[in-house]
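Shipment paperwork, digital attachment
Item: protein structure file
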Amino acid sequence: MLKPIILFSGIIGLVLTGLSCMDRKPAPVCPVPIELNRTKRQVNVFEGVDMLVVVDDSGSMAEEQAILSTQFFTLINSLVFPTADWDFPAARSVRIGIVSSDMGLRYGSEINSDYATDGSLKPCYKRGENGKFRTYSSGKKIDIRQGEIKCNLTGDPIQCPTGWECRDSGQCEGKEDHPDVGCCYDPGGNGTDQTCPTLNGIYAQTPLGLGDNQTPNEDLAFQASCLADVGIDGCGLEQQLQAAAQGLVHPDNSPDEDSTFYRENYLLAVIVVSDEEDCSAASSELFESTELTGDHTPHKKNIACGMNRQHLFPPRHFKKWFNELKGDESSTIFAAIVGVPPNEEGAVKCEGRGTQIKDCLNHEDMEAVPVIELNSSGNEHWVFREACRREDNSGTLVTQARPGARYVELAKEYGSLSYVSSICNEDWSPAMSEIGSLIASRLQGTCYPKPLDWDNEEERAKCHVVVEYVDEDECGFELDDGDEPYETVEEIGDQSHTVLYCPLPRLSAPLDCTAAEEVIDNLDADRIGWYYCEDNRENFEQACDPDGKWAGLDEDEDGLVDCQDPQCWRCNACKGEDGVDPSNAPECVSSCKFKVELTQKAKHVTKNHKISVQCLQQVTFTDTNCQENTEEVCNDGEDNDGSGVADCMASDDYLADRNCCPMMVDEDTQECIVSSEVEDICDEGAASDACVMAAKALRCNLKTTAR
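Attachment content:
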């Protein structure tokens, strides 16, 4: 059903006061439509995050779980209690469930209880945990490493374990110096035998309580670290991805019979920590294979999964599974700290976003090569050649991981919504920060496809963010003066409902996102409203790509363009650029230039309500009087046709409009030919910005000499 076009009293006046196509004569007055984007995720994309973490509990994971117990603080604190050097605001709501990789000798939803011939598979004979959330009993203790958890030096050291103190960054282990950030130390010991806080429920979460009784959970990171200590007695045929899939539907993992662990309107993050390849079995034939029987000397159970991949679920199966549970593919991210080689200069990359590790499986260390090794008992067994290893200063082996090719395949399926890091790294904090950034960036407001009309005097967009209340008599917040709600009757399903449309208050803020965030952060915490901003940093692929939409523009005005700019060096667009050194460069984490943001209080009061963005913007019409292709409108500083670009020359607010330089392509020379009847539109000749844009659109060779 088509939805009604909605006009508020504050907008109607604009319509009546001459928003036409520049009063062209004898052209008629052009219509001014409402651009309506109506979707429950158009603004306030996600209200929080549900994190399901799979921790390998097989016998080789003791050291890695010890690292995780400390580094979980880095990830969780970045989301909930960010330090002064963190770029994102705190998430309002976080859930964390931990499952082990132990599925027993299970294939799909079936259990193989007959196979019991190999003594080394004894841990697998039990039914497996099938994705059931791990919990812990009162009095559980874990070890936490000092000097590795960052904390704010001012105020309570909320990022630290309970009872710890925050010390100056000069005492931190390998952390960058920041005047307001230090690291956590145990004042009465060395971090060993830390008593875990009480767990409030079947998973760790913040806030605690519902409705108006919500209180932040200051022990969230500590609880998650305790949950991640899953032990090393699990089945050696690890089914990490299947454990994640089952964990989301396990009946014991739901808060009650009418809901699930994962929530609508919340981001789902699936994270795997393992030193072995995924062996998510789809067929019992995997377990019936002679390569599992132990009849061979040395036996081959450790390579059965890799040698019989036809009996495993393909990695894309799990992306499809997660998407079907959540309802769309943008609601889930995937991250893995697994067996891949750490990045080295000049080598194929295996650490990074899915878009950055496309060639990882071509790395020589990712090849599945069977070799014979001695196990801890001194017996020979078949394994795959390691993808990475780490030794301590004395040469003693600390970590040894097998190629995690299936995680890389799944990350590639997720593209920029994924991150992979090597489990062999001694310091996991960079990986945890990257995963935190991946999650936090998805919790931000709407990414709009083009710039919104901007009012310089009032410092706000000429748009409304509208909240829909179904069968309710009043708006859930106080409206701005001059704004009025609009009510209509609509068919929802097979019934008629009254829908009340309420415009959120528009907040004034600078157009630049960095400056806008500072202004909004200083507002009263109870302020309800929204604001629009534009990201002028050169830190996303469209700004860095030499062939991209904003190619050749110095977004951040530092004198460096595209891949010359260090902010772009880790962007996939700059792959292979000569002279580009990606070491220590910031991650290319953003894909959003035009943002619509709600305040935290606005997100709270609009929870579970559909939201739309409505703008008085002109769009391209078939009426030739409403095109941006004449000398007058191509030089007036306005985006007359609502295309998101304007005029012959690029400005601070707009790119040039290719419609101001109509062209065709010479089939023989592949050169751009400018239409003779419009040669006087742009003053700067054929090399004007508009002609450059037109040439790029046509992919033809532009002559730079003037006409």
